[in-house]
TrEMBL record:
<dbReference type="Pfam" id="PF17048">
    <property type="entry name" value="Ceramidse_alk_C"/>
</dbReference>
<comment type="similarity">
    <text>Belongs to the neutral ceramidase family.</text>
</comment>
<feature type="binding site">
    <location>
        <position position="452"/>
    </location>
    <ligand>
        <name>Zn(2+)</name>
    </ligand>
</feature>
<keyword id="KW-0479">Metal-binding</keyword>
<dbReference type="GO" id="GO:0005576">
    <property type="term" value="C:extracellular region"/>
</dbReference>
<dbReference type="InterPro" id="IPR038445">
    <property type="entry name" value="NCDase_C_sf"/>
</dbReference>
<dbReference type="GO" id="GO:0017040">
    <property type="term" value="F:N-acylsphingosine amidohydrolase activity"/>
</dbReference>
<feature type="binding site">
    <location>
        <position position="415"/>
    </location>
    <ligand>
        <name>Zn(2+)</name>
    </ligand>
</feature>
<dbReference type="GO" id="GO:0046512">
    <property type="term" value="P:sphingosine biosynthetic process"/>
</dbReference>
<feature type="binding site">
    <location>
        <position position="203"/>
    </location>
    <ligand>
        <name>Zn(2+)</name>
    </ligand>
</feature>
<dbReference type="GO" id="GO:0016020">
    <property type="term" value="C:membrane"/>
</dbReference>
<dbReference type="InterPro" id="IPR031329">
    <property type="entry name" value="NEUT/ALK_ceramidase_N"/>
</dbReference>
<dbReference type="GO" id="GO:0042759">
    <property type="term" value="P:long-chain fatty acid biosynthetic process"/>
</dbReference>
<keyword id="KW-0862">Zinc</keyword>
<keyword id="KW-0746">Sphingolipid metabolism</keyword>
<keyword id="KW-0443">Lipid metabolism</keyword>
<dbReference type="InterPro" id="IPR006823">
    <property type="entry name" value="Ceramidase_alk"/>
</dbReference>
């Protein structure tokens, strides 16, 4: 194979912008914990005629408008057929501590006051540059795969919904979360390391909703640790990827990590992933052989025909969010009087929906059949009809898979629950095993964000995840049938699949209400860079060191590929050497 890897900074604005993930308007960035990166790999067959690209980004999720713009730039640079929407996957780690505003649908832009051009541009530029690096560094090499379990790396946030799945199905599994990490290792023909990617499903929210520092969270920390380890023995690139009781109110059941604070929890969960990744990378893997291929289709998810187990047919729905979406989750509580597991609306909130939301943002009111379609979800936000100032949810999604020898990467446009992920993985593997392919991996949060995908049984519980399964109770079966139907094409005839209806691209038509940064100013007699609170000359080992400067607003310069700070050591009488910069775990940059 021809193999290349690349990494580039996508951090974006680190101050005065809303952060993406918790939908909390008061969670505004005020500094930097760890820089965010795009990590890419390219694999081509030996004749360089069929290539696939996989990108994992330290962001809450992939964005449709970002992928569309990335593909435009790649086509301008490499021609119309080399890297396209069909063979490029962009996936998010699901950190909830990155900048918001990089979408083209209103629901996920409300708390960020619309689109944020700096966020969008940073992601687009950094993703393209990471792919450029991978393209320019391609070498002949081999691929290897390994799997092992991560010890105590995740928990199930909605175990009561999981219990809705059939007992005989649950008894096939020891845990109510997926424990397995899958590693993909790249090695040059001369034995040199090229890179490594891992997938392990854990919600990347060790940094909680009180955090105001941009952070790549536990996935980014694990990646940085592995990269630092490999740099000691030779440059390498690594990317980690994936994805209590149940009282009525989630505020009484708050999810915390295993550490004494969110920074400690981030470190602990990262190192648990790191230890398994090291075992796999150095000791536990087998070589992949076979073809490199891809399959992709745009699908309108609002009216997909679904055949049920009893032979009857039904359809998916136009998107909508349920009441329990507004209740939030155990790691990010919602507002007002909403609770989890609401299967009936209330007169008050139905009136708010019908008399305010529908009249203000819907060109056409939803019919009764729309609400019936979502049953037993009571729809709070009829986003499928909310079209002012533009669409509130996507309707066209990417259905995409990559083949790397005996491995299939199932790129799904949202967050699949544990059992939903197991089912679609099993369906794809069963379809592929006749062709000698037995490994499949779900890569969530890929290409476009459509919130959650629960099993039909979990949907009836209407916890946060079911309420956020936007295309109705049969969303999962629609995806399961579509992905399974494309397996044969992936293996035999990738070019035979119709492209499907193209999604809209409204990058230049979006609303951006975030005010621009004001001109920088300092008190009379002071200059930017002057020290306010200096450091001491001597510190005990392990002490925290803090220094305060008059500084410019970091929104004026995002320092992509650079740093806002450097900790230097005097290595001789005249030479200062950087020891840490702003992306290192040992530093934190705060701005106010």
């Amino acid at each position: 194979y021809l193999i290349g890897v690349g990494r580039y900074d996508v951090t974006g604005p680190v101050a005065q912008v809303n952060m993406m993930g918790y939908a909390n308007p008061s969670q505004t960035a005020a500094g930097l914990h760890q820089r965010l990166y795009s990590r890419a790999f390219i694999v081509c067959n030996n004749g360089n005629s069929s290539c696939v690209v996989f990108v994992t980004v330290d962001s809450g999720m992939a964005s449709q408008v970002v992928k569309l713009e990335v593909i435009k730039r790649l086509k301008e640079k490499y021609g119309q057929t080399r890297y396209t929407e069909r063979n490029v996957v962009i996936s998010g780690t699901h950190s909830h501590s990155g900048p918001a505003g990089f979408f083209q649908t209103m629901l996920v832009e409300v708390t960020s006051l619309g689109a944020i051009k700096q966020s969008t541009d940073s992601f687009i530029d950094g993703i393209v540059k990471s792919i450029d690096q991978a393209h320019s560094q391609m070498r002949r090499g081999s691929m290897h795969i390994g799997t092992d379990n991560v010890v105590e790396g995740n928990i199930n946030r909605s175990p009561s919904a999981y219990l809705k799945n059939p007992l005989e199905e649950r008894e096939r599994y020891q845990y109510n979360t997926e424990q397995e990490m899958t590693m993909l290792k790249f090695k040059a023909n001369n034995g040199d390391p090229i890179g490594m990617f891992t997938w392990y499903p854990v919600h990347c929210t060790s940094m909680n909703f009180s955090n105001q520092l941009l952070s790549s969270d536990n996935k980014g920390r694990a990646s940085a640790l592995f990269e630092r380890m490999m740099r000691k023995s030779g440059e390498d690139r690594s990317g980690n990827k994936s994805t209590c009781g149940i009282p009525p109110r989630v505020k009484n059941c708050v999810g915390f990590g295993p550490g004494v604070d969110m920074f400690d929890s981030t470190d602990i969960i990262a190192k648990r992933q790191l230890e398994t990744a090291k075992i796999l990378y150095f000791n536990k893997y087998e070589q992949l052989v076979g073809e490199v291929s891809w399959v992709h289709q745009y699908v309108d998810m609002t009216n997909q025909s679904v055949q049920l187990d009893d032979g009857t047919n039904t359809t998916t729905c136009k998107p909508g969010m349920g009441y329990s979406f507004a209740a939030g989750t155990t790691d990010g509580a919602g507002a007002f009087n909403f609770v989890q597991s609401m299967t009936e609306g209330t007169p008050l909130w139905n009136a708010v929906r019908d008399d305010i939301i529908v009249k203000v943002v819907c060109s056409v009111p939803p019919p009764k059949e729309y609400y019936d379609c979502h049953h037993p979800k009571p729809v709070l936000l009829p986003t499928g009809y909310m079209d002012r100032p533009y669409a509130w949810h996507p309707t066209i999604v990417d259905v995409q898979m990559l083949r790397l020898g005996q491995l299939i990467i199932i790129a799904v446009p949202g967050e699949f629950t544990t059992m939903a992920g197991r089912r679609i993985k099993e369906s794809v593997q069963n379809e592929a095993k006749a062709h000698g392919i037995h490994n499949a991996k779900v890569a969530g949060l890929s290409n476009v964000y459509t919130h959650y995908i629960t099993t039909p049984e979990e949907y009836t519980a209407q916890r946060y995840e079911g309420a956020s399964t936007i295309y109705g109770p049969h969303t999962f079966q629609a995806y399961q049938q579509k992905y399974t139907s494309l397996v044969e094409s992936l293996i035999l005839l990738p070019d035979s699949v119709a492209p499907g209806p193209s999604p809209a691209d409204i990058l230049n038509e979006q609303i951006e209400l975030l005010p621009p940064p004001q001109p920088d100013s300092v008190p009379s007699g002071k200059s930017i860079g002057d020290v306010i609170d200096d450091v001491n000359g001597i510190f005990p080992q392990g002490a925290e060191i803090s220094v305060t400067f008059y500084g410019a607003n970091p929104r004026h310069n995002m320092k992509l590929g650079a740093t806002y700070l450097a900790v230097q050591q005097l290595t001789n009488d005249t030479q200062w050497t950087d020891v840490f910069v702003d992306t290192d775990w040992e530093t934190r940059f705060l701005w106010k």
